[in-house]
Amino acid sequence: MAEAYRIGRMVEEERGLEGYDGEVEQPVRTGDVEVAASRLGGLARWAQETLT
Q1: Sequence-ordered list of residues with C-beta below 8 angstroms from that of 32, at least 6 positions apart, any chain
Q2: Residue-wise burial string across 16-29, b where 16 or more C-beta atoms lie within 10 A, e elsewhere
């Protein structure tokens, strides 16, 4: 997630856009990467348990 947010911030700077992570309802520029990583981890566990 840290890498995804880093890339998102680069795109924001290059394009003058504002990114938003709708999954955790926070802006990319000031968002908490740990919150996003935790959410992604939960989704990954659910997918592994449910879809395999």
Answers
A1: 24, 26
A2: eeebebeebebebe
**């348990």: which residue's tokens?**
49
CA distance 28 to 6: 9
| Tens digits of pLDDT across the chain (52 residues) | 999 999 999 999 999 999 999 999 999 999 999 999 999 999 999 999 999 8
Query: Are 7 and 30 in contact, with CB atoms under 8 Å apart?
Result: no
